[in-house]
Structures are given as structure tokens and as C-alpha cells.
Automatic annotation (TrEMBL):
<dbReference type="InterPro" id="IPR008278">
    <property type="entry name" value="4-PPantetheinyl_Trfase_dom"/>
</dbReference>
<dbReference type="InterPro" id="IPR037143">
    <property type="entry name" value="4-PPantetheinyl_Trfase_dom_sf"/>
</dbReference>
<dbReference type="InterPro" id="IPR055066">
    <property type="entry name" value="AASDHPPT_N"/>
</dbReference>
<comment type="similarity">
    <text>Belongs to the P-Pant transferase superfamily. Gsp/Sfp/HetI/AcpT family.</text>
</comment>
<keyword id="KW-0808">Transferase</keyword>
<dbReference type="InterPro" id="IPR050559">
    <property type="entry name" value="P-Pant_transferase_sf"/>
</dbReference>
<protein>
    <submittedName>
        <fullName>4'-phosphopantetheinyl transferase</fullName>
    </submittedName>
</protein>
<dbReference type="Pfam" id="PF22624">
    <property type="entry name" value="AASDHPPT_N"/>
</dbReference>
<dbReference type="Pfam" id="PF01648">
    <property type="entry name" value="ACPS"/>
</dbReference>
<feature type="domain" description="4'-phosphopantetheinyl transferase">
    <location>
        <begin position="112"/>
        <end position="196"/>
    </location>
</feature>
<dbReference type="GO" id="GO:0016740">
    <property type="term" value="F:transferase activity"/>
</dbReference>
<feature type="domain" description="4'-phosphopantetheinyl transferase N-terminal">
    <location>
        <begin position="23"/>
        <end position="108"/>
    </location>
</feature>
């Protein structure tokens, strides 16, 4: 069943061509983007995300996956790098896609939603990025953390902020260091939005446990508490069988 207001579904999508019936459901632009990736891993994550989103939304909207239409105009400059939204068929369902390491996942909700997963491993120099990602108050908290937990805490903030900026559609147009959140060892909550561009409404933030090597968060623009349900995307959907409801 599609999510009802107050519910956010998070689906993990399996990675690898064996799970997906080719690229036929993608549009020309998606196929071109898929072909441009040099790394097989990037290409496979892209296929999982875009084929999976189409199959899931097509299932919910009652249309073939290849007939789900998207638009993605940036709300600030009008360019084609904005928040992707379904414009065919007309729907209030919103979705948010994320790819990171072994994770490709999509959140679907009846309100604007953002999902982000961040991989902790890799060469990211968190100290070098800290002033552009963390607000002054967050930076004071973060620099007081022991070295062994600081990296995870940094990516905890980052996932929460990206989830929020994907829900609003601001993307990189709002500097992350203008947003202050509760510290990652407390329930996620927006403390202050000091960006010039306004926040559209109340926000519900939730952390997701996706294992020791990742942080993840979901944001829903709603004044109501949000129930998060999670499920693995079943390969059986590709074979036309029934999607189980997320638990
Ligand atoms: C939004 C963004 C920062 C997320 O990047 P990321 O965390 O590295 O990557 P993720 O895999 O978690 O998320 C990427 C997905 O977010 C979605 N997305 C892209 N822009 C988005 C936006 N503005 N709002 C919401 N979602 C967005 C897309 O589905 C994208 O996947 P796709 O490219 O395969 O379609 C990145 O996509 C981006 O750089 N966007 C455009 C640049 C921008 O905002 N410029 C300033 C505006 S003038």
C-alpha cells in the first residue's frame, strides 16, 4: 500500500544488474546518465536507484514503471539539478533517493521527504569540512568529542542536514552551516534555521540505523509525528508479484 499521511516508507534497493530487468524502463536522459558513469559500482547504484524508484512508484500509482514521468527543476536557478518530483501521473506522493557505498534506498511519503545515507569509510577529511557543514554551536560540541566518535558524529550531522535539504529541495543552495540541529547523540530535531532562504514549514527528523559503517536520516516536512516503516525491496516485484507491506 502507498504511504498514508504521517507515514514514511524507506525501501532498500538491491544493487547489481542481476536484480533488475535491464534498463528498459528508464527514459533517454536516465539511460545517457547511466552510460556516462565510468565506475561499474556507480553505474550499478544508479540502475538500482532509478529502476527501483520507477518500479515502486509505478506499482503505487498504477502505471507501468516506464511511464512514470519526473521533472527536476532547481527551485532557485531553474536548472535541471533540482529535487526530482513525479509529474506523471499527478500525485501527492513524494520520494527521495540516496546512494552511498553498499546502500541504495528510497523514501516515499505523502509529504515532502528527504533521505540521506552517508558512508563513514573513505578519504573524506571531516576536519577540513567541519566549518562548512557545522554551525558554530555544533562545531563547539563536535570539537569536544573524543577522536573515536567524532567521525561518526560528523556524518550523523551531515546525513540529517542532507535529508532536510533534500526534503525541502534546497540541495546545496542552503549552506549546511546555517542550520543547527540537536547533537547526533540526541533525538534528531531542528534547533535553528539561519539561512537566508526560508524553510517551508515544520520538519520531522529521524535517524535510521543502517549499520556501523554508515549514518542515515530521513526528514519529512510535516507538523505531525511521522511513523517510519522499513523494508527490503523484493526482487519478486520485477517478476510481477505482490510487494509486501513494510514493517
Ligand atoms: C542534493 C545533493 C547534494 C545530494 O547528493 P549526495 O548526498 O551526494 O547524493 P545522494 O545519492 O544521497 O542523493 C542524490 C539524489 O538526490 C536527489 N536530488 C538531487 N538534487 C536534489 C535536490 N535539490 N533536492 C532533493 N533531492 C535531490 C536525486 O534523486 C539524486 O539522485 P540522482 O542524481 O541519481 O537522480 C546532490 O544531488 C546535488 O548536488 N544536487 C544539485 C546541486 C545543487 O543543489 N546546486 C545548488 C542549487 S542552485
Amino acid at each position: 500500500m502507498p504511504p498514508v499521511p504521517g507515514e514514511c516508507q524507506v525501501w532498500r534497493l538491491p544493487i547489481g544488474p542481476a536484480h533488475w530487468a535491464g534498463l528498459d524502463v528508464l527514459d533517454d536522459e536516465e539511460r545517457q546518465r547511466h552510460a556516462r558513469f565510468r565506475q561499474v559500482a556507480d553505474r550499478d547504484r544508479y540502475q538500482a536507484g532509478h529502476v527501483g524508484v520507477r518500479m515502486l512508484l509505478g506499482h503505487y500509482l498504477g502505471v507501468p514503471a516506464g511511464q512514470v514521468g519526473f521533472s527536476r527543476h532547481c527551485r532557485h536557478c531553474g536548472a535541471g539539478h533540482g529535487k526530482p518530483v513525479v509529474d506523471q501521473p499527478a500525485t501527492k506522493l513524494d520520494f527521495s533517493l540516496t546512494h552511498s557505498g553498499e546502500w541504495v534506498a528510497v523514501a516515499v511519503a505523502a509529504d515532502p521527504v528527504g533521505l540521506d545515507v552517508q558512508e563513514l569509510t573513505g578519504g573524506t577529511d571531516v576536519a577540513a569540512l567541519s566549518e562548512s557543514v557545522l554551525s558554530p554551536a555544533e562545531l563547539r560540541w563536535w570539537t569536544a568529542q573524543p577522536a573515536e566518535s567524532a567521525r561518526r558524529a560528523f556524518f550523523g550531522y551531515w546525513a540529517r542536514k542532507e535529508a532536510l535539504l533534500k526534503a525541502t529541495g534546497h540541495g546545496l543552495a542552503v549552506p549546511m552551516n546555517r542550520i543547527t540541529l540537536t547533537p547526533p547523540d540526541e533525538p534528531a530535531r531542528l534547533v535553528d534555521w539561519a539561512a537566508e532562504r526560508p524553510l517551508d514549514g515544520p520538519v520531522q527528523l529521524h535517524d535510521l540505523d543502517v549499520g556501523p559503517d554508515y549514518t542515515a536520516a530521513v526528514a519529512v516536512l510535516s507538523s505531525l509525528p511521522v511513523r517510519i516503516t522499513r523494508a527490503e525491496f523484493p526482487a519478486s516485484l520485477a517478476a510481477g508479484r505482490q510487494l509486501p507491506d513494510p514493517a
